């Protein structure tokens, strides 16, 4: 007896449809163990069935099926031995429900071809698998065979020799009801062209196959009708966008696909004629149309997200598919890519020769931007196609921007016209009119030509290098004599309240300072005072109560085109030059007061030494003033050391790096030459035998020019911005960096410096007050008057006390800064701490 086989047949007929075949076999095995177990009860059976109930959705119909299975198993468990159980199982197939038969039409969920079914396929790699209610694997074959065997099972005791019949006689009634292949071939061409027919009706994107068609033909029809559904979908997309405004590139793509669909229609019509001559079968038809199905799958995949995909994205996709392993896919991709690339070529050449983006429909990697003040075009990295090398992308962007720069701001109209005509002819002579090594060679030539010419115009016509040098000499006080002359002449005005300052008066003082300093050599030169005329005096808006010293600043006015490549107090920018000048202005202000009051103090000391009367009093005053002179010298020395360090190690050092980056790589040493460095002693040694620098190990920084001969306009702007940024990011000037915070003061070095410079200025004010009261004492001593002497001496002692307190404050702050620098851990900061000590 085969108890397990019969039990599995009962289980297969009763369980819900969604339970997988492996689970059915496992359930049959568990139920068999349960029936042969000595401990059978209802709770045990429920626990067995609960495991498999969770594998299918809960519905009323499924619940009824589980209850039916439970009832039958409980009935079987009432028998005491296996023989009685087997006898019951042999007749239980009459109690179990059978699988639902096929409808007159194929059901929507299982046997309908639809776009949703096609979407679950790999349209380019594998043919569609036809859904069927019949066995689809050896696993399902066993399942259906078991049911069929069970239902046809008859005990040998019922065998009757008189009932013998051949297999042909048994199946003949069934075959006579099946549709003929010739009838199907007559209707198949209509379905392949997405046209409904009596045999294969189409509705809502689905094709229904009659039930009187055998499995073999049904499977072939499923594969054939994939072409009809794909044709229907593609044709609807083409017709839908025919009257909608889309980009020319996408319109061309649809035109090409539409032409392919018309070719497909002609192909199907030719096959239809062949079928009428009885020269086709379903198998041969599928063999002939297979390549067409691959093409339709390809087009369906291309148009999958047509509305959300731009033309440039299609170019990148098609470019990748040009190297596909399937020759059909490769050929279609090459054809579509060639038809679309002409529009992209037009976008590219318009930008390269005219600096314009004409109707690009958001399909180019250069886009307009409202954020850019001068040349409103930016690079959109997400739009860069993979068929253009990255080094070419940056050159393409620069060529168009530089053309606009020369035409709009430099007014080089004659050159721009000749440049545009020359390269338009070169691009038009490229036969393929698409991306190629020849195109990239012309772009490279064009880039070097326009960059070299632009640098020549900036230097010769707009005096780029002269402006760069005057910015350093005046705003960064590389030549401070002009600032010193300006302070000398405007000191009285600068000491007045800020409300009384006049821009006209400050400008007059500035002009006089230029004429009486080394900068008078810049006047009446070949540039027609172009460079020196950019210098301007300004008053900062710091509010009521400020004095001239606090609000005065120098500025340099730069107009386009220089302002595009030199960010000098550019509108809405960080005002780097203004910030650096105001910082250095504190040093010059302290120097001025120190020098002025030191001269006054020395003069007072000489005059006091001439007085013969009241020698003890005079000696006491001389001693105290002399000691304060010593303190003032120490403070001034500290101020000078800081100023010298800031200029030499921060400003001048970065300016030399800036000049090096500006110089052409053609004039630089070759990679085979040995680099040298000059020591403080004047000895020149090889750069490499000294302590290793951090810069060679910084892999994140890249050269601004790579292999280019000269920096372009973006490179010039970036180099200058980096130059300013490097100065302001120095630990002594940076305020936002966590690395510039002192260990002991717990405040940024820049803040400590400002406090120190303010403290030095406060000391100067007390020193001025000391000189004032000493001068009055000197007058009284010379007049031999004693009326005001006591009061003056009291003031003298008070000022003396204040100046000592201020010196102690300065001393505390300076020592704290030195401790912070010593504890920084940076060699440069440690060196500075020793220098200031």
From TrEMBL:
Q: In terms of domain of life, where is this protein from?
A: Eukaryota
Residues annotated as domain Gamma tubulin complex component C-terminal: 469-824
GO MF assignments: gamma-tubulin binding; microtubule minus-end binding
Q: Which residues form the Gamma tubulin complex component protein N-terminal domain?
A: 186-461
**InterPro entries, per this entry?**
GCP, GCP_C, GCP_C_sf, GCP_N
Q: Localized where? A: Cytoplasm, Cytoskeleton, Microtubule organizing center
Is the keyword DNA damage assigned to this protein? no
Q: Which Pfam families match?
A: GCP_C_terminal, GCP_N_terminal
- Family per UniProt? Belongs to the TUBGCP family.
Write the protein's name.
Spindle pole body component
